Predict the structure.
Amino acid sequence: MKYLHKMLISLFIPTFIGALSFFVLLLQVIDLFSNISQYINEEVPLKVILQIVIFYIPKAINTSLPMALLFSISYTMGNLYSNNELIAIFSSGIKLIRFVYPLILFGLILSIFGFYFDNKIVISTYSKKNELQDRALSVVKSFDNHNVALTNKSRNIIYYIKFYNDKNETLSDIIIIERDNLNNLVKRIDSKIAYWNNGVWEFNDALIYEKKDGVEHYTVTVEKKYMDEKLNLPPVSFKDPVKDISEMTLQESREWIQLLESTGKTQRALEAYMEYLKRYSMTLTPLIVAFLSCALGGKFKKNVLLMSLLSSLSISVCYYVFQMITVEISLRVEEIPALMGAWAPFIIFTVIGLVQFKNAKT
């Protein structure tokens, strides 16, 4: 048995390296040619383009791993079948699962590797790639925001902002409502402009309506400069939330989700949380594709290269599309937990793999 496993691995590894190189090159070519006209128009130096390509390599590797693994297993198993070697192995009484378990184990190892590789290397290099590309193409990202309504973590202070200027970190046309535990109005602050100053907002020409203890009516005061340590919601809270979870580490993702939740952006927080959960479920993609391709590997006896390529692309597309659908359903239907939406594809495709193993020729 050890000899058979050694033979299987020796056939699989070169194919896997070749397939991984092919898919990485394919992704690089697609990314390069999709921006080549802009590079030419902006007269981007070749050195900068090469830097962008290099920074994209880790992301391309991480994206290509499942497809390369699926193709290489399908191709290896298909070659064994077309050469009648699988028939000889099965005729000796060896079960398919016993024969291919090193490949499934390899898929598990790749899943673990991919998790740390993504969090430690891919995130930082992909962010640098996007930043360098935007700078080279003169893409200006604006985080200014209009008509913002936020609340603080304790939900007792509500901010209504007409406009947030990200460059200057200023708020314009502001109304702030402070409530007590019974949701009764305690204070209202109106101001035309506010500046971020040493961890709190400084309001200019603030009109303050305040109800003091033991007094039934509200007092009205005007402050040329007004600051309150409770009004400390940071400027990042007011930005147009266009941050991409794929460019954040797991820790940064959790902090971003907490910030969205604490400022009342519940829908954005849910979408970010789904992307966060997908980071975990997608980690096991190499394992599930290894499982599926091992079960399907002996299906092709003719046109092994073509059929292996088609099957790997088809299964990968089906898996990713199905995950997009389950995530979208989970976002729209409150009764479906986010955890189920993120992990449903893995569970369903695992069941499909088990059925395929049961019906496989052995």
Notes: The first strand starts at residue 145 and ends at 151. Residues 96-136 form the longest helix (41 residues). The mean pLDDT is 81.
